[in-house]
C-alpha cells in the first residue's frame, strides 16, 4: 500500500486492497479513507471511489515527510484531530495502538490519548457478562476492546465481534442484538469507531439465497379446467391468473375456472375444505372482494386500477372567486353577460355550517401546502447544475426508472433530464422540464398502484418478499423524495398510519381497523372485537387459532374485556410488525436529500401532500397561480377580464380544452408540483395574433382582442392544436 507500506490483504481490518496497474498504484481503502489531507473531489466513478489519482499522489508526497509516532517510519498520512495534538500514524499502526477512526461525516481520527470513551456510572454492575454475539465473557471495564449498548443496560460486546457483525449486516440490518434498536445504537457505534458499510446485508447479497422461498405453485387443480392453453398457463391481471389455496398454497385454480371475479377473493382447495369440515370449524361463507374491487360502471375491476382521469367540473361548480371580482360583477361588461348562472346554481351569501367548515379546512390545507413549498425549496438548494439524464420507456415506466436510479452515475443532487426513448417524433416544444414532469407523474401513479402498497385510498406498505430481496422499498422511498424536490407531484396516497410510522416511529403508532387491507383478516378482527359474550369470543378464537398463532397472539382468554388488548395486538402485528423490514428500507429511501428529516420536523404540513390527494384544478387555482405582468393601466385592459371569463368557461365544461391543458401548454406540466414552479408562471398581454406558451419562462403571452369570442376562439385553436401535435 502506497500509504501504509504494508502488503497485508485483510479487508476486515484495512478495507479492500486495490491495485491500479495503469497508475502503478496499490492502496488499502481504509488507509485512503482516513488520510487527513485528501477529500473526494470527483464523482463515484472517477479515480478510486471519487478520490482522484492526482490527489492520491499528492497525499503520498505529503505523508512521506511525516514520521509515524508509533513505528517511527515515514509515510504517516493520518493525524489526530484533537486541538494541539500533533501525533501522526499509519492506519495499521493506529489500530495496534488502539486509536479510534470514525467512519462518518468528516472521517475523523483520534489518537490513544484523545479518543472518545463511553461513560461508566458508579451504578454500572461490575464483573463480567456474556458478549451477546459470541457468548464469551466480557469484563465490564472502560477499555478499548469492550463496548456497551447505549440502549440496553445489560448488553456488552467485544469490539471485534461488533465489527464483524457490522460488516456482515450492513447499514440496514445492524442493530442492537438485545432490543433491536437501530438509530441510537448505530450512532453510538459509529462514534466509537465501528465501521458500518452502506450496503445490504451479506446474506441478502448471496445469489439465489431465497430461491426456494420464492417458488410459487402454478397449476390449475379444479376438476374441469376451462383454459385452452392448459392447466399450467398463467397470465397475470387476467381471468387466467392462477390463484392459490389461501390455507395450504399447494393447490391452485384459474380465476375463471372457479368463477372468481376478482383476484382479491379467497379460494380454498377441496382437501383443506374437507379438513375444516371434519373439524367442525369450517363455515362456508360468501366470498367477498376488497373495497377496491367494487362494481364500477356495471363491471367488476379484476385488479386495482389507476383512478380514471378526473371529469370536468359541471356547470354547477362554485365560482365565487370570479363573482367577487369587480370586473366580473360589472353588469355592462359584455364578456361576462353570458356567464350568468342558473338560479339553482348561484352562490348564495349564507353558507351552511358544513360548507363553512369545509371551506375552512380547504383554506387550512392550502396554507399547509404553501408552507411545504417553502420547505422543499430549502431542500432544492442542494441541487446542482450538473445534469443526469434518464432514458425512460413510458410503456415500462418502473423498470426503466429503476435502472436509471440505480446507475452508478445517478446522483439525486444533480439536475435531472428525462428522455422518453420510445417517442419517435418528439416535438421541439416538449422541453426537458415537460418530460421530467410527465415522468414523475407516471412514476407516482405506478407506485400508488404497485404491489409495494396495499389498501384502497389511504395506503400502507404491503409485505412483498421479492421486493424486500430486491431492495425495492428503498428505491420507492428514494424516488418519492427525489420527485418532491425535483418538481414532481405530491404522492397523496399515504395512510395516516404509514405517515405516523415514518415520522414518529412505528413503536409510537396505534393502527386502526381501517388499515387492514385483507378483507378476511378484517372480518376476523371485527368478529373478535364485537363478540358480546365470553363463550362466543372463545369460539371465535378457536376457529381462527392458526391465524392467531401466526400473529403471535394465541393466548388463553378468561374475560370478555381481554378482547380489546387482543385486537390491538393483532392490528399492531398485521399493520406494523409484519412489515418492519419494508418500513425501515422505505424510511432509508426517504432520507434522500433530507426529505424525511424535514417531514419529522414539520409533520403537519407534510401530511397535507402525502396523506391528501392533490386539489383538483379549478379556475380559482389557475387564476391565483399566474401573475399578470402588464402596464400600470392593467385594470383598463379587457384582456384580463377575458382571461378570467375564459377560465370560468373551461371549468364549467363550455370549452374543448381543460384546465390541465392550459397548464400543460404554459409549463409543460398538467399538475402543480408540491415545490411549485420555477420560475413562477406569469401572463403578458401583447399585440400578437395567437397565444404563446413559453415553457422556459413559464410565461403565457396572450393576444389583446376586441371581443371575448375572438379571445376564446384563439385560445382553443392554439392550445388544442399545439397539444395535439405534441401527443402525436
Q: Topology of this protein?
A:
Blueprint: H1 11-14, E1 17-20, E2 25-28, H2 29-34, H3 53-63, E3 78-79, E4 88-89, H4 91-96, E5 100-101, E6 109-110, E7 128-130, E8 137-139, E9 146-148, E10 156-158, H5 159-173, H6 183-191, H7 202-205, H8 211-214, E11 242-244, E12 252-254, H9 270-279, E13 295-296, E14 299-300, H10 320-323, H11 326-329, H12 334-337, H13 353-380, E15 384-392, H14 397-406, E16 414-420, H15 432-448, E17 453-454, E18 460-461, H16 465-469, H17 472-485, H18 496-504, H19 519-529, H20 534-543, H21 545-550, H22 562-575, H23 580-590, H24 595-601, H25 603-610, H26 619-625, E19 627-629, H27 638-651, H28 659-667, E20 682-686, E21 692-694, E22 699-703, H29 708-727
Commentary on this structure:
One of its GO terms (molecular function) is ligase activity. This protein is α+β, with helices and mostly antiparallel strands and 728 residues long. Among the domains are: 17-110, Herpes Virus-1 (2-Layer Sandwich); 128-204, no CATH class; 368-513 and 579-611, Hect, E3 ligase catalytic domains (Hect, E3 ligase catalytic domain fold, Alpha-Beta Complex); 619-726, Hect, E3 ligase catalytic fold (2-Layer Sandwich), CATH 3.30.2410.10. Helix content is 39%, strand content 10%. The strands form 10 sheets. It has a 4-stranded mixed sheet. A two-stranded antiparallel sheet has the order 1-2.
Amino acid at each position: 500500500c502506497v500509504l501504509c507500506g504494508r502488503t497485508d490483504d485483510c479487508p476486515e481490518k484495512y478495507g479492500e486492497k486495490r491495485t491500479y496497474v495503469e497508475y502503478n498504484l496499490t492502496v488499502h481503502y481504509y488507509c485512503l479513507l482516513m488520510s487527513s489531507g485528501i477529500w473526494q473531489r470527483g464523482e463515484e466513478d472517477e479515480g478510486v471511489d471519487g478520490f482522484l489519482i492526482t490527489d492520491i499522489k499528492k497525499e503520498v508526497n505529503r505523508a512521506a515527510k511525516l514520521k509515524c509516532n508509533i513505528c517511527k517510519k515515514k509515510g504517516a498520512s493520518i493525524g489526530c484531530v484533537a486541538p494541539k495534538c500533533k501525533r501522526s500514524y499509519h492506519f495499521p499502526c493506529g489500530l495496534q495502538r488502539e486509536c479510534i477512526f470514525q467512519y462518518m461525516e468528516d472521517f475523523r481520527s483520534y489518537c490513544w490519548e484523545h479518543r472518545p470513551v463511553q461513560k461508566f456510572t458508579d451504578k454500572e454492575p461490575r464483573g463480567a457478562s456474556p458478549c451477546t454475539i459470541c457468548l464469551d465473557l466480557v469484563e465490564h471495564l472502560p477499555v478499548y476492546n469492550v463496548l456497551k449498548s447505549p440502549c440496553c443496560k445489560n448488553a456488552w460486546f467485544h469490539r471485534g465481534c461488533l465489527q464483524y457483525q457490522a460488516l456482515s449486516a450492513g447499514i440496514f440490518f445492524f442493530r442492537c442484538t438485545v432490543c433491536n434498536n437501530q438509530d441510537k445504537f448505530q450512532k453510538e457505534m459509529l462514534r466509537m469507531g465501528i465501521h458500518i458499510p452502506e450496503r445490504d446485508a451479506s446474506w441478502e447479497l448471496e445469489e439465489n439465497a431465497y430461491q426456494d422461498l420464492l417458488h410459487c405453485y402454478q397449476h390449475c387443480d379444479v376438476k374441469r379446467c376451462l383454459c385452452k392453453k392448459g392447466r399450467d398457463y398463467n397470465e397475470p391481471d387476467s381471468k387466467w391468473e392462477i390463484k392459490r389455496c389461501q390455507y395450504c398454497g399447494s393447490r391452485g385454480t384459474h380465476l375463471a375456472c372457479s368463477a372468481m371475479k376478482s383476484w382479491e377473493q379467497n379460494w380454498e382447495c377441496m382437501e383443506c375444505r374437507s379438513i375444516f369440515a371434519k373439524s367442525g370449524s369450517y363455515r362456508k361463507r360468501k366470498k367477498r372482494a376488497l373495497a377496491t374491487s367494487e362494481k364500477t360502471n356495471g363491471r367488476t375491476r379484476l385488479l386495482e386500477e389507476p383512478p380514471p382521469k378526473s371529469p370536468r367540473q359541471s356547470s354547477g361548480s362554485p365560482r365565487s372567486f370570479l363573482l367577487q371580482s369587480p370586473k366580473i360583477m360589472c353588469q355592462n361588461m359584455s364578456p361576462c353577460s353570458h356567464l350568468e348562472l342558473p338560479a339553482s346554481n348561484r352562490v348564495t351569501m349564507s353558507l351552511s355550517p358544513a360548507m363553512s367548515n369545509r371551506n375552512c379546512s380547504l383554506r387550512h390545507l392550502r396554507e399547509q401546502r404553501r408552507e411545504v413549498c417553502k420547505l422543499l425549496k430549502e431542500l432544492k438548494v442542494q441541487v446542482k447544475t450538473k445534469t443526469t439524464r434518464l432514458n425512460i420507456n413510458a410503456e415500462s415506466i418502473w423498470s426503466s426508472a429503476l435502472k436509471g436510479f440505480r446507475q452508478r452515475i445517478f446522483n439525486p443532487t444533480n439536475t435531472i433530464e428525462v428522455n422518453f426513448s420510445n417517442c419517435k417524433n418528439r416535438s421541439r416544444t416538449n422541453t426537458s422540464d415537460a418530460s421530467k414532469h410527465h415522468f414523475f407523474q407516471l412514476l407516482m401513479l405506478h407506485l400508488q398502484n404497485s404491489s409495494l402498497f396495499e389498501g384502497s385510498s389511504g395506503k400502507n406498505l404491503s409485505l412483498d418478499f421479492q421486493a424486500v430481496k430486491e431492495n425495492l422499498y428503498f428505491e420507492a422511498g428514494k424516488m418519492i423524495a427525489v420527485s418532491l424536490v425535483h418538481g414532481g407531484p405530491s404522492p397523496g396516497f399515504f395512510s395516516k398510519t404509514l405517515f405516523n410510522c415514518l415520522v414518529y416511529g412505528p413503536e409510537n403508532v396505534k393502527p386502526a381497523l381501517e388499515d387492514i387491507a385483507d378483507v378476511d383478516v378484517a372480518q376476523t378482527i371485527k368478529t373478535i372485537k364485537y363478540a358480546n359474550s365470553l363463550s362466543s369470543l372463545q369460539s371465535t378464537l378457536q376457529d381462527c387459532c392458526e391465524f392467531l398463532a401466526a400473529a403471535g397472539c394465541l393466548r388463553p382468554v378468561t374475560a370478555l374485556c381481554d378482547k380489546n388488548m387482543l385486537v390491538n395486538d393483532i392490528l399492531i402485528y398485521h399493520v406494523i410488525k409484519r412489515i418492519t423490514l419494508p418500513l425501515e428500507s422505505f424510511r432509508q429511501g426517504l432520507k434522500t436529500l433530507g426529505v424525511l428529516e424535514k417531514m419529522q420536523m414539520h409533520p403537519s404540513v407534510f401530511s397535507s401532500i402525502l396523506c391528501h390527494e392533490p386539489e383538483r384544478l379549478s379556475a380559482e387555482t389557475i387564476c391565483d397561480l399566474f401573475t399578470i405582468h402588464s402596464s400600470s393601466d392593467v385594470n383598463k385592459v379587457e384582456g384580463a377580464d377575458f382571461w378570467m371569463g375564459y377560465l370560468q368557461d373551461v371549468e364549467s365544461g363550455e370549452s374543448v380544452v381543460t384546465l390541465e391543458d392550459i397548464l400543460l401548454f404554459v409549463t409543460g406540466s398538467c399538475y402543480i408540483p408540491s415545490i411549485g414552479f420555477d420560475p413562477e408562471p406569469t401572463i403578458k398581454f401583447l399585440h400578437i395574433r395567437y397565444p404563446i406558451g413559453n415553457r422556459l419562462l413559464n410565461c403565457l403571452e396572450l393576444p389583446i382582442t376586441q371581443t371575448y369570442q375572438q379571445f376564446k376562439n384563439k385560445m382553443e385553436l392554439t392550445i388544442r392544436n399545439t397539444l395535439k401535435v405534441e401527443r402525436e
